[in-house]
Amino acid sequence: MKRIVTGIDFSKTSVLAFRYAMQLAKKTGSELLLVNVQRHLDYEVPRAAEEPRGPEHVMKQFEELVATHGPDHPVNVEFTVKEGRIHEEIANLARYADAWLVVVGAHGLSGFEEFWMGTQSYRVVSTCMTPVITVRQGYDVDRPIKTVVIPIDNTLETTQKVPFTLDLARQYDAEVFVLSLYSDSTMGAKEKVEASTHQAKRLTGEAGLRMIAHEEVCENITTTTIKYAKSVDADLISIMTEQEFAPKNIFLGPYAQQMVNHSPIPVLTMHPKALVQSRHVI
After folding, report:
1. Whether the Cβ atoms of residue 81 and residue 36 lie closer than 8 Å to each other
2. Does domain 147-277 have CATH number 1.10.260.40?
3. Coil, helix or strand at residue 137
4. Helix, strand or coil for residue 163?
5. Residue 84 main-chain phi, psi, to 5 deg
6. Domain residue spans in the chain?
7. Which backbone phi and psi does 90 adopt, to 5 degrees?
8. pLDDT of res. 115
């Protein structure tokens, strides 16, 4: 059975991620595995402001959650409670459960959403060897994935996300927008983008999906990608964790972190090493 792992702490953002994962699981014929991580007080920010969350309390919340949202997307849902660091436990569960995807809320799983602002979700993205989709509060999770943006930059890893992304896009017969990003004016960098764009176009054509190609000269690939994705009303942006890192962006953080923290559109993030070892076909 194919599995999707979702971190849940019953905050608004994690419930949103759960609902998003439910429709994905239904569409792809997957089982949904929810995990609630009980943190050690000496690991991270204490949960003093939150309600006690013993096993009975957590199980009651889980049952209420499934009763409320389960009828909309009838899929097999299982639940487990772990103890430790949130990002590590989610990554470990995804690996040992042989999951093909992880879904988390983009404001983290800490319960202190305003304080953390994406810290936990980015930790999951950077730690997890399984592809991760992050969903921000306010997104309409009932929207099907009809438009997917695949940004192409001058890194060697940029096209590794394409096959997995196209597999997911095929489930929805989504339209693919290949976005070529030129942030380096050197000839070598331009040639890398052009070669990778050609490969992405070829793979999309072979997948039998509708495609639109677009190119942008940019300084910050995050803001350019998000702006373009908004302009085409995208439902998903697909990126790699290891992207180009220009010195002028140093105070904004790595590309993947910027995307997770700022994109109002769900972001599918993949790690190059995970793709090399991946055995999953959606």
Report:
1. yes
2. no
3. coil
4. helix
5. 150, -150
6. 3-135, 147-277
7. -65, -45
8. 35
